[in-house]
Write a structure and sequence with these properties.
By secondary structure, this protein is α/β, with parallel strands linked by helices. It has helices at 25-40, 65-78, 91-101, 108-119, 123-127; strands at residues 12-20, 45-54, 82-85, 104-107. The longest helix is centred in the first third of the chain and has 16 residues, at 25-40.
Length: 128
Amino acid sequence: MYDLLNEETTDHVLLVGLEEGRGARRHAEVSLAELRRLTESTGAAIRGETLITLRHTNASTFISKGKVEELKGAVEEVGADGVVFDGELSATHQRNLEEALGVRVVDRTLVILDIFARRARSREGKLQ
């Protein structure tokens, strides 16, 4: 299990949607709504949502330094103890974002894996 999505605690998370490219806002909103439902099914309490326009990815943090600062302010404002990105982060992106934001960071893939792990019944299913 992941610290952020631990079933013994109620996590307070901020969801981060990613608008990539021109005209992608509607797609980003639909994807963020789906992420909201996935995250709710883990038992996490959603404190807020934000949509970030992503012109290009940053090698160290996925989003620009300015966006990291904006996100840090949003995390503090809503009192979140975690951030869920609607996209796939590398281990480096995740680690660097956690250091910059001061909270646990997970991506959509980890949320889905957490859901499967919680619902698995057999030992083999839980290992997968």
